[in-house]
Amino acid sequence: MVVVGLQAAPAVSAAHVSDKQVTDKFMVKYPGGGQSGDAATYKVYKYALNHFYIHTYYYNYNKKTKKYYRNGASDWMDLKKITANKIRILSPPMEGKPYVDIVYTKHSVTWYYWNDLRKQLKKG
User: Fold this and answer.
1) How many domains does the chain have?
2) What is the number of helices (H) and of strands (E) in the chain?
3) Which of 55, 78, 79, 102 is the 20 to 30 Å CA partner of 18?
4) Over the stretch 17-53, which tens digit does the pLDDT of each residue have?
5) Beta partners for residue 48, in sequence order
């Protein structure tokens, strides 16, 4: 992946996300805890062949109840095909502006998600 400068761009609004059907959802457990907790759930919303929105919720594990509970942290990614060979991935702002990553591929966002990104997310 290649990172190309930062640019301001609005994230997909929560109202629009709720209107779309969840395409995929799964949970990843981090043995020993991850950066934001002990587990994460991913909900993937498909807007079009070339536009996905991924919302992540983080969880901690309660040893007494042996259950996961949401710790309040969440994250998102907005994947959109911007040219024939580029997918733009927006992530939450770190210092006021969203993080932008450009992936060079001839494939659609749907293909990229199911054949590449999903595997990376499942690894943790």
Assistant:
1) 1
2) 3, 6
3) 102
4) 545 677 899 999 987 777 677 899 999 999 888 999 9
5) 51
